[in-house]
Amino acid sequence: MTQQPFSRPGAIDLSALKRPAQSAPGAAAPGAPGATAGGAGGQATGAYTVEVDEQSFQSVLESSMTAPVVLVFYSPGRSPESADLARNVSTVAEEYDGRFLAGLVDIDASPQIAQAMQIQQVPLMYVLLDGRPVTQPIPSAPPIDELRAFFNQLGQQLTAQGIGGRHKPRTVEAPEGEEPVSDPRFAAADEALASGDVDTAVAEYEKLVAANPADTEAAAGLARAQLLKRTQGVDLNAARAAAAANPDDVEAQILVADLDLLGGHVEDAFARLVELVRRASGDERNAVREHLVALFAAVGNDDPRVLKGRQALANALF
């Protein structure tokens, strides 16, 4: 398959699409985290594959703002080879751990998308980035080895252009009676933590954050791993005694806050550092503030205790 260079044509015209129907409360939209991705007649599933319909098309386009989306148009009934292409693209995209997202469009089930994209035949494949096609449409179904070479060349082009974002994995529902599929991004870090190798876990999370600074889950994982690293081998009673004897010792207070958080005393940890922010000044005050923000990330920015902690920090600062 001939390599096609990236270009920057105009954005996709969505005017042919109807306004998406509202999902039932609590239901996951197709392609959203929590939905099962099944493509090419339900035969292609994975953490980086999504079956695209009118309701999910806009969110898939928005996903291309983070990293490329390989959009495949197929019709199982009219073109079996197009369904094969959909499955193969899904297979290859999964091998890249978020570098690409495979978006599979059954034009029989979603004719309005085909209309919006002016699809005249299948199979057809586009690569989208920043909401726009960045290659010419590819009207063929190359063998999977050629697809792998194509993806590899695209990855090299992305790296050369300084584009290093990655997609977050879609949650794939496990069959009844089986364990849920784990998040593949964190496999190496989880394995390191399970073996007690905190340094390696920190390094693995740092790689994920460097590849995609907007990945809040990876940032939270990094903050938790760093917390474990800071508190390794610390004597809790000695740390508390030192903090009690030196209430304005920033390092002593921060260490006890870390230990409190690790022990599940989240609000105590936050309150200790908020109070220290009130008393400290200059560089020390900024160091405490930054450490507290890191603890917020470790707990999770949507946690109600974090929301209260942020308000308390704002009050202490201003």
TrEMBL record:
Disordered: annotated segments: 19-42, 162-182
Pfam families in UniProt: Thioredoxin, TPR_20
SUPFAM superfamilies linked to this entry: Thioredoxin-like, TPR-like
PROSITE patterns: THIOREDOXIN_2
Compositionally biased spans, kind Low complexity: 20-35
InterPro entries: Thioredoxin-like_sf (IPR036249), Thioredoxin_domain (IPR013766), TPR-like_helical_dom_sf (IPR011990)
Span of domain Thioredoxin: 18-156
Protein name in the entry: Tetratricopeptide repeat protein
Organism name: Nocardioides eburneus
